[in-house]
Amino acid sequence: xxxxxxxMAASLTDYRERLEYAHISVEELFEGxxxxxxxxxQEIAAEIEQYIPAREKIGLPGGSIETDNQWLGSQLRAFSNxxxxxxxxxxxxxxxxxxxxxxxxxxxxxxxxxxxxxKDQDKQKLAEILARAEYQKPATNEESxxxxxxxxxxxxxxxLLPRPNIMPGAASDFASLQFGLQILIYxxxxxxxxLMLYKFAPFLFRRSGRNRKFDDHDRVILGERMDAxxxxxxxxxxxxxxxxxxxxxxxxxxxxxxLLWELGNxxxxxxxxxxxxxxxxxxxxxxENLFENLSGLTRNYESSWYGLRTAQQSDWExxxxxxxxxxxxxxx
Length: 332
Fold this sequence. Notes:
Helix content is 67%, strand content 5%. The chain is mostly helical.
């Protein structure tokens, strides 16, 4: 798709979409790094420059701004003239990251332009959030569960062994008897508590230990939390199920997550919650075959998931074929 920029200022949404198209085209250049012919590269580079002109006006609610993207044409020409594969890849990485950065800035401007909440509304929303139960301090006079148990045991024992009603003028022998009964009650209480701890504490500790282990080994991939007991096969089976249901967009995303999970298990990449698909692609840059395969899968995932075009059955079949080919080529 080639978008023509006329004398009228383009909208923020139009500018953002063209930035995203340009980013996808850069991904195509990544895939063609190993090709000897540059004819296709020149066509893609020309399309990118048509998407993002060197200068254009972008309309804002209060006026307009003029962009300065002359750097893009300069970098694309440097890429075309460079012969070293490593340096060519570095140039494309710089272009891709700068396009993503500009896209995020434009998204922020879009959000600011469409925001219509007043300060009073913001304050009211903040007050509603702070009024939620999770932000309330617990009552200081509330008894803990252990205190409730302790008081219940004391009350039960007090009923079982009531204190003698000793008058102030009674003999000191009765006072000694009262003291002895109190000591006996405390001994019985401690024995009961000790028995309960002996019986139930190992079970509680084992259970809490399992929960900590489960939480510690959960993984977050592209913002999605995965169960520690999952496997790449089980995750890809979910993707197959989604594809059979016709949800090809979600199937490709789930398959991409299964791929990263397996690459993480084989130490080809290091999984982290903050990493993006571009970060994982950089992790394998030194492995030429894996980089080429992962580039194609990443492009398929990005173009399908981010809505640049509707995923087709052929996209899923191509993704599935590349997935199995990539996994087969990675050492365990």
